[in-house]
Design goal:
about 400 residues, about 30% strand, 4-stranded antiparallel beta sheet, 4-stranded parallel beta sheet, about 30% helix, 21 strands
Length: about 400
Amino acid sequence: MTRVVLILPTATYRAADFVAAAEQLGVEITVASEKKLPLSSAESLVIDCSSPEESARLIVAHADKHKIDAVVAADDQGVEIAALTSQELGLPHNEPFGVAATRNKVTLRRALARAEVPQPAFGVVNSPEEAAEAVSDLGAPAVLKPLGLSASQGVIRVDHPDDAPAAAERIRRILIAEGHSPGEPILVERFVPGVEVAVEGLLLEGKVQVLAVFDKPDPMEGPYFEETILVTPSRLHPEMLDEVIRVTQAATAALELSEGPIHAELRVDGARVMVLEVAARSIGGLCGRSLRFGLLGTSLEALILRRALAMPITGLQREGIASGAMMLPIPNSGTLRSVLGVDAALAVPGVVDLEMSIRSGEAVRALPEGNRYLGFLFAKGPTPADVERSLRAGHAELEFVID
């Protein structure tokens, strides 16, 4: 029987959706994670996601007992493991060095620079003093980023070189809290104005098959960069959409990515399109639930698994209506006590679902220290503007009681 190894870090939002997609396809599942997850009757394999080589070795050893047809990672933490394992087993895969580059912001920037892919001017610093010098050299405003964190954690805009040392020190504290070395370098980028979009795609033998382009209608100007609303289809002019897709293709080619899902973040400033991030996985959080494909409403996770398992894909065309998600922002740090207005939010026309990801009694941290969202609100409608209005109206009905 066909078997897929799903690499599902314990912190992932997406375990249930990937397992459900695999079970719907009728394939056997081995779940590789830091500990056994209570998902289903799926076989479990305990790995260390922070050690890609050792984790790949364990999965390859597992293949001696159970034939493995595909290895799929849900999140960033597993993509390098999936590439190394698939390479060893002779399965379709991305080059491990290219996947590793997507996990390190400096390596990514340097790879894109070699291929002359448009991106922000950048520098790498090792001290608060160097951060101030870099901002002075690049020009303010600038953005300071840790190399390996995600979900905008530790990303801070500064408007003057004098502000850079304090931002660098704050990033150091965040790194220490997350178990990273306090001596880890920091990336400094020139701030790029404009609107931000996200490209969701599936690589088919090196060619980006675009599944969706999301607009981010809320300004992403800092000082922190919390994502909120994502709406598709994009309202960009068709010529600008073509340029966004062209630049995305150039970025994946520069990284020698060739198979599986990709998620790219780009800025559009007038006629300029610049790459901010490229990931060798699909969209994060639960935002993938806003996407359905083909006449049967196939999920994003099912598409990814079908491609990995060389199963026929009946349709990559997104459903004909607009859709979107809102990642519910955390207004302040503390302890979540309750969420009010859920029924009223779900009653808003166009709103189709609400999924809380932090429960009452749990600690919450606002950006830039935090890396989670309170939950996800979903909407559908005739147009992107309708979806955006529904998401904003639904969010307005919610009240989060945080001590």
